[in-house]
Amino acid sequence: MKNTIFTGAAIAIITPMNADGSVNYDELGRIIDDQIANSTDAIVICGTTGEASTMTDEEHLECIRFAVEKTAKRVPVIAGTGSNDTAYAVKLSKEAEEVGADGLLLVTPYYNKTTQKGLIAHFTAIADAVNIPIVLYNIPGRTGMGMEVSTIKKLAEHRNIVAVKEASGNISYAAKLIAECGDVIDVYSGNDDMIVPLMSLGAKGVISVLSHVIPKQTHDMVQYCLDNNYAEATKLQIEYLDLINNLFIEVNPIPVKEAMNMMGWNAGSCRLPLCDMSDEHKEVLRASMAKHGLIK
């Protein structure tokens, strides 16, 4: 097994925005500090939840640089640098390495998609261009492009490709992935509602949205699994299932930003085309947050 980037609960962190739509770096720094203080094990910056798809190149790189400097090696920083354009992903990945990212998160190509052969060529080209570890990101519901287990097994032969964020939501696929590749590549749950199921199969942790609102409990859920105390881990998974579901009642990261705002953080709004939550969904989320004592 190659070196593991992290074990435990990472946060797929939001990008807080000012009223004018610019990045609120002060609040991003506050959130990073709070997450680390509450035992979050890694920061994933500029992923899906971070709205990287609407960032300029300058903003994207500056957010990565800021996270690296703010974190100051307290926990690893993993930068989202995936693209449907291989050359652009190579460029952004090299830049992320230059500003100090500890690892990269690379989503499968979207819209143009590709074949499995193309996936191998795409990820290999990026991995050849950098000298830091890579987490592949399998989320076919968003990209329309899934990774076959055999493709991941082939990619795991590369020295820099060390992990997969598995967010297909398919437990049968995840079981096969861990059974066939778990000895050569780390697997992280990409879905908060599947933390315990995937860790019971051998996953190393989660890249979480839930951590925004309950970082310590998310960390503890994962730690219980690592300690082989699945009874306590399962209690937390079930206890917070309604909250997990309601954080995805609309397209991520719309609900989690709303939840953060409810808690008093200055998360701001999402950038278009993501818009504010419906009033009906806000009330559902608010009730779930209140139930768990996160707001009054």
Quick tags:
single chain, 8-stranded parallel β-barrel, 45% helix, 296 residues, 13 helices, 12% strand, alpha/beta, globular
How many DSSP helices?
A: 13
The H/E string reads EHEHEHEHEHHEHEHEHHHHH
Name the overall outline: globular
Strand order of the largest sheet: 1-2-3-4-5-6-7-8
What summary fits the major beta sheet?
8 strands, parallel, barrel
Number of strands: 8
Structural class: alpha/beta
Give the % helix: 40-55%
Percent range for β-strand residues: 5-15%
In short:
With 296 residues, this protein is an alpha/beta fold.
Describe the structure.
The chain has an eight-stranded parallel beta barrel with strand order 1-2-3-4-5-6-7-8, surrounded by six helices. It has 296 residues and is α/β, with parallel strands linked by helices. It is built from 13 helices and eight strands. The model has no long low-confidence stretch (mean pLDDT 97). 45% of the residues lie in helices and 12% in strands.
Q: Can you lay out the helices and strands and say which pair or pack?
A:
Layout: E1 8-12, H1 25-37, E2 42-45, H2 57-71, E3 77-80, H3 86-98, E4 103-107, H4 116-129, E5 134-138, H5 140-143, H6 149-155, E6 161-166, H7 171-181, E7 186-189, H8 195-201, E8 205-208, H9 215-226, H10 230-239, H11 241-246, H12 254-262, H13 279-291
Parallel strand pairs: 1-2, 1-8, 2-3, 3-4, 4-5, 5-6, 6-7, 7-8
